[in-house]
Amino acid sequence: MRGIGKTTLMQQINNEMGQRGNIFVIWVTVSHNDTKTIQNNIARSFYSTKELKEFKTKDEIRVRAGIISYHLKRIVSLIIFDDVRDDLNFTDIGIDINDENLRCQIVLTTRDQDICQRLGAEQIKMNARLDETESLKFFRKYSYIDDNNNPNHLRINHIAQEICRKCAGLPLAISVVAKTLRGEEEEIKWNKCLNFLSEGCPQKVSNFVKDVYVPLKFSYEDLEEDDLKMGFLLCSLFPQGQEIQLKDFICYDIGPADKCVRKDRGQRALNTYRGQRALNTYRDIFISLKRKGLLQDVVEEKEDKKNSARMHDVIRDVAISIAENEFEGFFNIKKFITSIQNLNLTDQLRSEVQFLSFNGNKILESIPPDFFKRMANLLFLDLRGTSISIKEFTETCLQKLAKLRVLMFETLHQNITVDTTDLFFLQHLSVLCLQNVHISELNQEFSKKLIHLRSIDFSNTVIVIIRPKVFSILRDTLEELYMQGSYSKWKAYNQEDGDYVAFEELKDLENLYSLHIDIDDKTIFSREYAPSLVIPSVEYFSIRYIRSYDEPRVWSSNMLVLPYVQLSNFAKWSQVLLIEKTKALSMCDFDNCATQEISSVIEQDIVKLLCNLKRLDLGYFRK
After folding, report:
1. Domain with CATH 3.40.50.300 in the chain
2. Which residue among 22, 187, 325, 574 is least packed, with the fewest CB closer than 10 Å?
3. What is the SS3 string spanning 432-467?
4. How far apart are CA 450 and CA 435, in angstroms?
5. What is the C-alpha separation between 351 and 328, in angstroms, rounded?
6. Which of 496, 450, 486 has the alpha carbon at shortest distance from 466?
7. Which helix (H) or strand (E) is 28 found in, with range?
8. In what residue span(s) does the NB-ARC domain sit (predicted)?
């Protein structure tokens, strides 16, 4: 049964075993049995971000399995496979369970008893529901009520008992409702909840979610702001079990000009803010949904867990049901659909569709041009993680989507050239994500045609030439710029006869809060430019000096890799680079750097600004 606490129990084991220090705990959320994805999730436990990136480039499953096997034989480990839905081939993954040298224990959660039998696993069957005593104890834990001397709690305690009965002993329903009522002292709110739960489940709701629909729907209706409700529904567009990054979540909400039609309330504008205020709004939505239990923290070890989440598959199904019943045009192509031709979409449905996601459907190789026929109202399209040809798509399908505001594409095969002029008729485009492709040139026409762009993600997209003022034209709109592994030929300043993009353009971007770029011109970091070169006040950044033959050793968020910056000149750079937000700092190639000079700099007040620093690399000193 779903929602009875299998994952929660495993999370507890994960946390307790991890704290012991004598065993290496690896958490893998399976959901869909894709061997390479499982291998990637295991490898992230061993590797740094850069090393993991290199591991992912290896195509041979057998080679990847050998690497994983090598690491597992060197440690004592516990691997938790959560939400297993098909048989796992441990040998293909890199876990030889018959190898006597393997010091590894495996635990898995599944709703299919036959999987346990076929894998030869010892079965531990969880009770489907908590009894009344356990339910109330569980409810009190999350609602913060007790039965001691608090008169308010004594008064509402009997209502809590009735609410638990209505939740039918299901831990997921109990925890979400309890978090929704947390901190409420007035009886009227508790009685309102009880009355809502007593109404019963609508007949049109699928049997798959009937047991939990009403409790989760109460928590949804209790969200006071429409932005929270829409944020909750938007999260259901992400593939089942996938980690939701704040960056992607922001892209899924598509700006002030967009409308989502609610069947009983008419139109509602989505986010109307810009820049840092927009970032704070989205982050508050993220945090609020977690507090309500409608989103969960990811279990895997992350650098910044507050900016990532995951939606429980039961909650996701309820969210999709709510969206389909209450909003027109909210449509999600589920991952298990293998062929678009098998979808019988009526003309009316096609005209209503506004949100469309194929994210993660790796077996999807093409989209017939007729599929988008009459989808003139489509606003959002996510094609990341598919096998679709971007060239074929732009030439045959894109012309039908003139109202599109979000286009997200990540090809699985690099070096595919994209002609950006094919995008110019998308004059409402707000978010453009083109990863792992090849672009010959970006010029001012790109920015003038796509004047509403607020998020550009060209990560690992090779761009040969970027002409001057491509980004400064977007000074009023651009909020996010991701270009790591993309283009590094930045110069410090524009010249009258120059034909390249300049670092100084960035200072004009008033709403920019996320900046990730590579630079291969070390003179930008010289003493000459430090006092006058200004970087906008961004919240998230990664600025790296790279060489084509020598990638930096550090790969992190809020990271600076600064060569040729003398420590004696570091004070000037601290004013330029928002040092107080830096988490990883790498400085190297200092000239005439003596011990006393290092000591004098450490004594300066600038060190106090390094309050968030987690990693510091100092190297390549010259006498």
Report:
1. 6-119
2. 22
3. EEEECCEEEEECHHHHHHCCCCCEEECCCCEEEEEC
4. 18
5. 10
6. 486
7. strand 24-29
8. 1-143
Q: For residue 327, is it left (φ>0), alpha (ψ between -120 and 50) or beta?
A: beta
End-to-end CA distance of the chain: 68
Secondary structure letter of residue 550 according to DSSP: B
Residue 146 CB burial class (10 angstroms; 0-12, 13-18, ≥19): exposed
**Contact of 236 with 294, CB cutoff 8 Å:** no
pTM: 0.74
Q: Exposure pattern of 504-535 as b/e (b: 16+ CB <10 Å)? A: bbbebbebbbbbbbbbeeeebbbeebbeebeb
Instruction: Judge whether 40 and 52 are in contact, CB under 8 Å.
Output: yes
Give exposure, 437-471, as e/b (b: 16+ Cβ within 10 Å): bebeebeeebbebbebbbbbbbbbbbbeebbbbbb
Instruction: State how far the Cα of 535 lies from the Cα of 541, in Å rounded to an integer.
Output: 10
The first and second tokens of residue 484, run together, are 């790591």
Locate all alpha helices (DSSP H) within 309-369, ordered by sequence.
313-326, 347-352
What are 311-358's pLDDT values in tens digits? 888 898 899 888 877 776 665 554 434 455 555 667 777 777 787 888
β-strand partners of 514: 480, 540
Condensed to tens digits (0 to 9), the pLDDT of residues 244-286 reads: 888 887 777 654 434 444 554 444 444 556 777 778 888 888 8
Give the whole-angstrom CA distance, residue 50 versus residue 123. Answer: 38
Closest CA to 96 of 56, 46, 62: 62
